[in-house]
Amino acid sequence: MNYHAFLLWWSRTFTMTIKELKQLIRDPVLLLIIAYFFTIDVYMAGSGINLSLRNASIMAIDHDHSPASRELIYRFRPPYFDFKGDISGKNEAEERLNKGQILAVLDIPENFQRHLLQGQAETVQFQVDTSNTVLGTLATTYAMQITADFGRDFVGKQTGLNSDTMEALPVIQNRYRVLYNPNRIDSWFMSIMELLTVITMLSMMLPAAAAVREKERGTIEQLAVSPLSSLQILLPKVISMGLVILFGVAVCLFLIIIPLFHLPVKGSISLFFAVTALYVFTASGIGLFIATISQSLGQVTMLVILLMMPILLLSGAWAPPETMPHAMYLAMTVSPLYYYNEMTYAILLKGAGIDILWDSILELSGLGVVFFNFGIWHFRRQF
Amino acid sequence: MNFTRIWAVTYKEWREIFRDRLFFIMAFVLPIGIFLVVGFGISFDVEKITFAVLDQDNTAMSRDFLHRFIDSRYFDYKGHVQSEREFDPLLADSNIRFAIIIPPRFEEQLLSGQATSVQSLIDGVFPYRAEVAKGYVTAIIANFNTQSLAEYLARKRGISKGQAIAQVSPLRLESRYLYNQALRSQWSISSGLMMLVLMVAPPFLTALGVVREKENGSIYNIYASTISRSEFILGKLLPYLLISCLNILILWWLVMHVFGTPFKGHPFFYYIASIIYVLCTSGVGLVVSLLVRTQVAAVMLTIVLSFVPAMLYSGLLVPVDSMGRETQIEAHLFPTLYYLRITWGSFLKGLGWTELWFDVAILLSYALILWGIGFLNFHKRPAE
To answer: B125, A350: Cβ pair inside 8 Å?
Structure first.
C-alpha cells in the first residue's frame, strides 16, 4: 500500500468515526444513561456495599445468671455485635430468628461459672442464622474468638495463663498483615468491580447497537456500496464508542473513585488506560459478532445480556478462579474480563507493572485479535 | 372491558412472539441462563486459598505446623520460597493470596518454653475473603497452641493432659447453623437468584414488547383502533406474564433439583407471592416502555432500574443490616428486598402467610402503583 492510499484509508475511517460520534451525541437519553453508569451507579455500588459484620443483633439465653455469664455476654458488643437483651428460652429464640429480628442466640448453660472455676472445660452454644452466608460465617468466626479469649482471660486469673504471661510460654503468636487494603475498605473493591461491569456492558452493547441500527434502518446498504471495506465500516464504531468509554472511565476514576473513596493508586495510570483500551477493543469484538448474527436491536440486547452474565461472573471478581470447578475454570480462561479484572486490581491496588503483567497482557491481546477478526469475518460473509 | 378485544391483542402478541424464534427461545433461555451462570459463578465459600511458605526453621516441628495448612481443605499449597522477596511478585500477580513465614529457631524456642511468632501476609483486595482467611489462620494457630501448651503444662505442673487442656482452652463455642446446616452458600444464593432473575427477565420482555411497537410504528394501528388503553395493556402483557409464570416454575425446579436446595415452606403460598412479584417487575417494564422510544434505551434503563438494585440492594450479596443508613433506606424502596425475604423464608425457614403477609402486601401495593402509573400515562393520543 502506498502512502497516498494509506492516507485515504485513514481519512475515510476518520470521517466514519466522526459520523458515529455525532450520531451518539444526538441521542441525549442514551448519553444521560451512559453518564449515569460512570458516575452515580459506580458511586452507589462503592458507597452502599459493605461485606462486613456490623452491629449484628444478638440475644442471649442465660441459664446461669452469674458474673461470668454476664461478662461473656458483655463482650458481644459493637462494632461487630449489638446485644439486644435476654430471652426466656428456646421457643422465643426460634421465633425471633425466624422473623429475622436477630442474627444469633448465645445459649449459656447452668453452672457455667462454677465449671469454669473448677477447671472443667465448658461449652456455650451459638445458634446462628446462616441464610446469608457472609453474615453467618463472619458472626461465627468472631464469636469463636470472643468466647475463646474470654475463657482464657477468666480462667487465667487462677492459673496464671493470661495474655501477659503468654510471652513466657511455648505458643505461636499470630502476626498477620493484610496487604494492599489494610483497613478493609470495601468501597475500593466494589467501586472498581462496578466500573469493570459498566465498561464490559457498554463496550459490548454500544458498538453492537450502532452496527445493528444500520441494518434495521437499511442504511447498511448505502455503506455496502460505498468504497469502504467491512473493516472500515466496523472499526470506526469501535473507535468512537471506545473513546466515549475511555472518557467515561477517566471521569469515573478522577471524579468518583479517587477523590470520594480515597483509592491510593499504586501503579501506573497510563498502563491502566492502555489495558482498558485493549479490553474495550476485545469486548467490542464480541459485540460486533452478536450484531452480525442478529436482525434487530431486541435480539442484540438479549444476546448481549446472555453473554455478558457469564463474562461478568466468571471474571474472578465474585469467586476466585482457584475455587472454581475445573470446567468453569477453563471457561474463565477465554473470558477477557478475567485477565482485565486481574490486571486492574494488580495495577491500581498492588502496584504491579508490565514486568509482572506481561503474560496477561499478551493473553488478552490474543483474545482481542481472535474475537475482533471473527466479528469482521462474519460480517463480511453477510454480503 | 371487552374480553374479546383483550383476547385478540393477546392472541396477536402471542403469534408475534412465537414467530420471532430467537426472541421466543430467549424468553426462556435468558432467565435460565442467568440463573445457572450466577448460581455456579458466585460463591462465598472461602476455600482453597492459594498460599506459599517461607520456612526459615525447617525442622520437624515447623513442618508439622505447616502441614496443618497444607492438609486443610481451606488452603491450597503452592510451594516453598527461599526469601521473603519472592512473595511480592507472586502476591501481585494473584498466584497466591496468602503467605506464611516461619522464623528461624521456631522449634528451639517452643521446646524451650518460649513464645515465637509466625508472620502471615494476606491479600486484602477483597476484604471479606481476607477476613475469613484471617479467621482460618487464627483458628489453626490457636489449635496448635492449645496442644503445645497443654503438653507443656502437663509436663511442668504434673497434671493430666485433660486437665491441662481445660486450663488452656477452658471455653469453647459450639455453633449451630440454622436453616443452612451445611453452611453452603449455594442454598441461599440459588434460592435468592429466583429474586434476581424474576427482577431482570420480566421487565425486559414487557419493555421490549411495547417499545418494539413504538419503534416500528405499528402502535399507530392500536391508537387508531377501538380498543381502550387498559384493554391494550392487559392484552399486550398477558403473554409475557404467562411466560414469566412458567419461568417461575422452571426456576423453582432448578433451585431444588440442580442446586439441591430443599423447599420447606408452602408451595401454594410461594407461587402466589411469586406471581405478585412478577406483576411488580413487569410493571417496572411497563413504566420503562412509557418513558423511552428506542429499544436500546429501553434495555439500558431496565438494567439501571432492575439489575443493579437486585444485585446490590436486595440483601442477596450484602445483608441489609450491614448497609449504611442511607443505603438501607434505598434498599427498602425496591421490591426485591421483600421478595427475597419471602423466598428465603419459604425455602430455608419454612415460613408462610402468618410470618410473611406483610411483605406480600407491600409487593401487592407496589404492583398496583406501577400498573396504575402505566395505565394513567399510556395515551392513545401521544404528544409528539
So the answer is: yes
